[in-house]
Amino acid sequence: EKGGYDHFMLKEIFEQPQTIFDSLRGRLDAKNGTLTMGGMREYADVLSNAKRIIIVACGTSWHAGLVAEYMIEELCRIPVEVEYASEFRYRNPVVGEGDVIIAVSQSGETADTLVAIESAKEKGAIILGVCNVVGSSIARLSHAGAYTHAGPEIGVASTKAFTAQLAVLCLVGLKLAADKGTITPQRFQHLLDELDQIPEKVAVALKLDDQVKQIADKYKDARDFLYLGRGYNFPVALEGALKLKEISYIHAEGYPAAEMKHGPIALVDDQLPVVIVATKDSYYEKVVSNIQEIKARKGKVIAVVTEGDQTIPPMADDVIFVPAADEMVAPIISVIPLQLLAYHIGVLKGLDVDKPRNLAKSVTVE
Ligand code: M6R
Question: What are the SIS domain coordinates in residue numbering (predicted)?
């Protein structure tokens, strides 16, 4: 059942070229320049006329929501907020007609997310569910939806569900933008092409497995890790840190790289591994300065960079090259080595990576 892999987590990491493809299939037609989102059709007008969008989710799904915030604001010029479902629900939020809630959940059964959308629905909001489990509670409660097609995810640490969420949320953003007329035909076609190429590029990134394993061996005894990224890669840093915490029980924090100087830089010394997601995008130059700040304090820099990068490698202690992609879809690729890093550190420490202590696959209590 693990298909020849030692753990479900590794199997699921390696399934990603296929699961992303499955999540795009039947929707994206890059050749003909079309995008069909069947589950959004009935509510197309309401959705594209939303006066704001609130994304509610927990854990890894919340990280996918953060990426979607950047995507949707850029593509659709609709204000987007991303909320932890548990916080959103309990603070008596201002929400009602004209608001669209996007609920992101692999299981579709997470109690915090479910309760949050129930109350928003009562107040007149329209709910768009992005779930992986067909017929799940959140999917059933939603007015409209776009399923991820990642297949069953067994490993407690979410991997393939996350990349499927990113792909589907990008499709949702593109659909809304096309309906609203906020995207040029050229940019629309370009992003369809970029998405179309993602499964292949993820397959290339998976070839880094052996290299990442060596890096894991080098840093597995560290007490703390810092993960940094900016823009679209900021949530990737959060996700990398969460994976490491869950699987290896090493304390890790994710931060937007520019926030370093407002506090966390005090933690940097020659014992601290700092994973920096620094692919070529509009934030690149800024991230290079952030790397210099860390090196000046003797931190160990593990950099995820774009193939062909010649600036960062001489500055970093370890370099991981990933295929180039438009910054909007780049997180789908840059998260792959971070999933592998957490996996290998967990395994090298002799831990049960598929069932980490204290965690349940779906959290059905509030
Ligand atoms: O099923 P959901 O996507 O609603 O689950 C949300 C979180 O419980 C989940 O992402 C959790 O954080 C994972 N263990 C992360 O790997």
Answer: 43-182, 215-356
Residue 59 near ligand 1, beta carbon < 6 Å:
yes
ipTM over 0.90: yes
Alpha helices in the chain (DSSP H): 8-14, 16-24, 44-48, 59-76, 85-90, 111-122, 137-141, 160-180, 185-206, 209-219, 234-248, 284-295, 330-348
pTM of the shown model: 0.97
For the chain, the straight-line distance linking the first and the last C-alpha, in angstroms and rounded, comes to 32
Q: How far is CA 108 from the centre of its chain?
A: 17
Digit-coded pLDDT (tens) for 26-61:
999 999 999 999 999 999 999 999 999 999 999 999
Q: Is 26 left (phi over 0), alpha (psi -120 to 50) or beta?
A: left
DSSP, collapsed to helix, strand or coil, labels residue 347 as: helix
- Ligand 1, pocket-test mutation among 130, 353, 362, 364, most atoms within 8 A of CB: 362
CB 29 within 8 A of CB 35: yes
Torsion sign (Cα): 194, 198, 202, 203: negative
Dist. CA 160–CA 243, nearest whole Å: 13
